[in-house]
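I have been asked to look over a protein record a colleague put together. The record follows directly below this note.
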Amino acid sequence: MNKVLNDFKEKIFKYKYFIMSSLLIIFVMIITIIYFINKTENKSVIKTTENIDSVLAKTETIIEEEKEKIFVDIKGYVNKPGVYELNLNSRVVDLITIAGGLKKGSNTRFVNLAKVLEDGEVVVIYSDEEIKEAKKKDTIAVNTPCICEEIKNDACYLPNDSSGIVNGKININTASLSQLMTLSGIGESKAQAIIDYRTNNGLFKSIEDIVNVSGISDTTYAKIKENITV
């Protein structure tokens, strides 16, 4: 028994460097295998995380794009009336272009082509005949705000308030926004300024007082003085 043990010890001693080298190689191989397994798993986790981030980013982009879309209805004298999807901050002129452009005989006098559209808005383009008919019926074709209060014969009209018109002239103390906007050089902002002024400062005592309104110059007054009253 002792002889066997001695022989075993001698062999171990004789081949100790070989055995140690082999064990070291095996150890290094095990460490290397473990390293590559962990690295592969980490790559997989990173790739999965990147994929999730990519999907989330795309989803957010789609949601933002949906938020930046509006739907607007256009009627009247355009080639393709209907409801259209547009980008946020699109203008009336963009809508008309998408709707195939204006028909022959259309009248855009009452249309603010530069107006920024809002979701759910209605824009009506009138014909020359509709404008003439509206004047005969003492109605005003309104499209500067691009919102219809009443639709007649596929056109958008706002009936006059008789209290705003006296002997064919616009009463600047009682006229509505749309009535004031029929005056030369008076758009929506100036018409609103007139209403705000008389609300905050009391009624106009004379037509000359209208020049006290912000935005109403002497030149504008000269254009409208024959058409206004108090």
Summary: The helical segments are 2-14, 16-67, 92-98, 128-136, 177-180, 188-201, 218-224. The CA atoms of residues 71 and 142 lie 20 Å apart. The first strand starts at residue 69 and ends at 76. Residues 138-162 have pLDDT under 50 and may be disordered.
